[in-house]
Amino acid sequence: MKKFSILLALILLIFTSASSLEAQELKELTWGGDSEGGFPYMFSNPTNTDELIGFEVDIVDALAEQMGRKPVYVNNAWENLIPGLNRKLYDISINGLEVTPEHKEVVNFSIPYYKTFLQLAVRKEDNSIKDLEDCKGKKVGTLKESYAQEILEEIGDVDIKTYNVEANTYEDLANGRLDAAFFDHPIALYSAGFNPEIKFIGPPVGELEYAIAIRKEDKELLKEVNMALAALRDSGKLREIYDRWNLWTPIMAAEFNDYSPSKIEASRYNEWSETHRPELTFAMRLERYKDVLPAFGRAAIVTMQVSITAMIIAITLGLTLALARVFSPKWISSIATIYIEIVRGTPVLIQLFFIFYGLPSVGIKFSPFWAGAIALGLNYAAYEAEIYRSGLFAIPRTQWESALALGMTRWQAMREVILPQAVRVVIPPITNDFISLLKDSSLVSIITMVDLTKTYGQVSATYYDYFGPGIMVAIIYLLLGLPFVRFARYTEKRLAAVDKDGKHGHRENIYRSSARYI
Amino acid sequence: MNITNKPLIVVENLYKGFEDGEVLRNVSFTIREGDLASIIGPSGCGKSTFLRCLNCLELLDSGSISIAGVKISRSPGQIPDEKMLDIAHEIRSEVGMVFQSYNLFPHKTIIENIMLAPMVVKKQPKDEVYDLAIKLLEKVGLKGFASKYPSTLSGGQGQRAAIARALAMNPRVMLYDEPTSALDPELVGEVLQVMKDLDAEGMTQIIVTHEMKFARDASDYIIFMDKGEIVEYDDGDILFASPKNERTKAFLRHFVNTGVA
Fold it and tell me: Closest Cα of chain A to B256: distance in Å?
């Protein structure tokens, strides 16, 4: 392990110094993709989860080299890739984006870099299905809301089961829950091409074109990208990439008008099938989990940073709102009330999208970190304000009166008598809120931040394993929240201790029958 | 009662009402320095409101109150301005108030309860206030309770601590709003004794109470209130022995019959 980490550090050092040298010379080409986009498009390297690989990654590298620019990767959720492009998070986007009429309305596309088709797969011993027509009355699995699903619907009479995760589909096919699986050929190949229990059957169906998305206004860039792609095609570099990934098909041969046999080995595909063919032993799995720990560690820091920043915003803004509601003239107080009701009455997910994707259209642009922290902070401020307010109202009126009767001004009474007591009342619920904020911070994973939740998705998509990493990420969330849980308990106990005359609270559970109350 | 002493509290034509009606109607009276006055009367007669008006916890609707030379007056319908609120605050710092439920600050120890106002309001140095607080604790018989929290005290101890807290501001007059009503009967005596001691020292005190025996024996004055008015006021013994007003007679008869007085 030690040797390994030294090696890793060395590689990192070389890598970073090399790239920093380049950085001084080359203009950046930022590109957006989804690290959970799936194989073989782009995914984390199973043997080193920090590295993003895939045939599209190779294409971007070749493209950038051809254009004389330095590729810089920006992560974003797949369904947000095109909004993110128009929000100028990156210059281009590439991740199995299909050239569809809807997409064409909002962005321009380069010439296609890859053409493929849909592939039907069945169990090896099943001879009842020869092509799509035979699927009538059978259970067929496919990706949710995909082109493949549309085609299955056109055939009619097919019992379509839609999936979010490809791997599960092929597992269900192998164990008999499905009669067939119908996917984009690259996905089929990388999911089941090496599986002895499954065979591909029938002719290629349909046609899928993948191209690079570029903002409408970037006409120059479009021209540049197209020229570079054409050059890569003509020089055979694109074909090399497809050969390496075992993605050179008759359709591509026709497209590139190149019918020569492959000259290089499908090294990337072979690596992939090697890591996925063998049944993993428990020890091998554990070893793998150990390898992803650093990635989870970094992600935990991101989660904590966002959560703590959001909580600081929530606590200070919440106090302002509460004071405005309690002490200000009516019109200010009703503004605060309206804010609180709006924020509490709308989903935080919508608030997050609005701040990150909506506000830039009126010229307000935040980095993903600040968009996340501000959205969560503004949201929780509404809840904190109500906690503060109920804390202030929980202090008996007589405390306020006796402070005034002692000659204190209103401010002195507030500062010396009311607030110190109110703080004790509100600390436990505020701490509890922080714990739930910690969990809600997983929402920032949809605005390109690599937090714990995002890392879980990446790691799991890479290994096809949602179980082990799921337990790991759950434990990490629990551990992060634990100190705050303890703190909340402790303050609750202390509060109950002050009130042990029984007037306000009690620390023991008096509701369960005990010796005292029979 | 010492007739030669000059008036300390002068109330003239005091009116006070809430949303649901008038509570005090045309109340006027005078208290001299060093007097101990008890206010008695049936529940809801306005005696607590009267006390709360005296230290401006409730702002009067109209009339005037003068305490130790500080005078707040208001004509009917007058909107209270900053100046009036400042006077109200000034009056409050001349008046000590003790509540039925003591209202000690639960997050502070007994001695911190006593020290808080002198330090915050009068900005007195901490050492000085500490010595004062220790002296006051001794005076109310709570020596050794300095670092205890209010929740650990009995009712009588709590009320005595509340008296010490009010005394720490060195008030010209002490107001008590039913100080013994929330106490167990056996604890009433210790609180009343503190008030008697203070009377002996010459403190001016006004007590709203249901303790008829105490009112009769210890007060210089007894004020009988009913339906928001002062019906009758006189020397304690005289009022009990020969009340002039029918309402006073009816009220006192009730207590004699139940054997309280």
Answer: 34
Global model pTM greater than 0.80: no
Angle between helices B155-167 and B110-121 (to 10 degrees): 20
Q: How many CB atoms lie within 10 A of CB A159?
A: 14
Q: Which residue of B has its CA nearest to A420?
A: B107
Q: A494: nearest CA in chain B?
A: B107
Which residue has 């503060």 as its token pair? A388
Tens digit of each residue's pLDDT (9 = 90 or more) over B10-32: 999 999 998 888 899 999 989 99
Name the strand (E) or helix (H) holding B136: helix B126-139
Summarize pLDDT for B40-91 with one digit per residue, the tens.
Answer: 998 888 899 999 999 888 889 999 999 988 999 999 988 888 899 889 999 9
- Among candidate residues B88, B152, B197, B65, the one with its CA nearest the CA of residue A410: B88
Residue A223 forms contact with B (CB below 8 Å): no
User: Pick from B106, B151, B169: which is nearest to A406 by CB?
Assistant: B169
Q: Residue A463 and residue B100: Cα distance in Å, rounded?
A: 71
The pLDDT tens digits for B121-149 are: 999 999 999 999 999 999 999 988 999 99
State whether B166 and A501 contact (CB < 8 Å): no
By residue count, chain A amounts to 518
Residue with tokens 């055939």: A155
Q: CB of A406 within 8 Å of any CB in chain B?
A: yes
Interface test with A, best of B121, B154, B167, B174 (most A CBs within 10 A): B121
**Contact assessment for residue B149 and residue B105, using Cβ atoms and an 8 Å cutoff:** no
ipTM score assigned to the predicted complex: 0.91
